[in-house]
Amino acid sequence: MGEAPVSTERDERKTSRVLRRLWNPLLVKELRGRMRGARAFVVLSVYLLMLSCFTSLIYYAYTLSISGPGSGSSMAYLGKVVFSSVVIIEIFMVTFLTPAFTAGAISGEKERQTYELLRTTLLPARKVVLGKFYSALIYMLLLILAAVPLESLAFVLGGVELGELALAQVILLVAAVFFAAVGLVFSSLVRSTLAATIMSYVVALLGTIGLPVLLLFFGTMVISAIFATSSAPSWLAEVVTMYSLVLLSSLSPISTAVLAEVFLLENDALFYFWQDISYASGTWHRILVPSPWTIYVVIYLFFALLMLLIAMLQVRRQATQ
After folding, report:
1. What pLDDT digit, counting tens, does each position of 159-175 carry?
2. Residue 244, in any domain of the structure
3. How many domains are there within the chain?
4. pLDDT tens for residues 284-312?
5. Side-chain half-sphere of 173: how many Cα atoms within 13 Å?
6. Residue 175 located in a structural domain
7. Is 100 exposed, middle or buried (CB count within 10 Å of its CB: 0-12, 13-18, 19+)?
8. Which of 155, 128, 170, 146 minimizes the C-alpha distance to 24?
9. Taking the complete model, does pTM exceed 0.85, yes or no?
10. Does any domain span residue 59?
11. Residue 313 belongs to a domain
12. Quick one: which of 127, 179, 157 has its CA closest to 319?
């Protein structure tokens, strides 16, 4: 009879210790500061206004390009065009908005000469970095979810399934996680917010446009050289070509979204599909081809975790200097 209150008190103490470990006052402070000002609502309003304008332009341009009333198939195609265009625009906006919220997270504290005051709060480096990171990520999640109704307009027009909508949200969220970590790691490495912002945008440009284009260019040259060596390339060369295409496409959120949509439409493959490849002797080989978004998620989340770890180590090192 007397053991029950003791056990209950022990459980309550364990629960309170867990809550104290999870509680991050810096996250609460950052969220309050971010959402109380007018900047957050102005950015959200402009973001949705731009998406609405682009969607309206795409809709009217398509309806003007078709002659006569649109049939069911043309309206379904219009739904896919509207959905794909909104997702691509969202990727660009998430890519270039997210670093702006984290590039000055730590360097801004140094410029305002409040960084030393922040370190006297005895918050560990992990909570300092994660508090800044989560506050920006939560706001970006708000932007992503706020645009879902615009994407859902494609359901009214037809041609878009629920799996495509969920896949688009995964690609956008992973891009927000990665580029938030990019801005944060540069903010911890340099003392100037301007320098951190420029470095973050250089990585955003390379990751979104520059690096995939360069890799595809050199990859095409290498693959062309391989196929030029023989009139009938082996099945192994075709396998290398297929996997190289998927891997290179997985390095950019835009190419990932485009190729994942192609795989979903042509092969009904959300995660993977089997590709038959013929050999010169007449034999056939079946290879497993993953959807590029699965590789994209693994690569981007791995490097995001790595950059967060670097930022934590940098903040911890600066605290001991």
Report:
1. 777 888 888 899 999 99
2. no
3. 1
4. 767 777 888 899 999 999 999 999 999 99
5. 15
6. yes
7. middle
8. 128
9. no
10. yes
11. no
12. 127
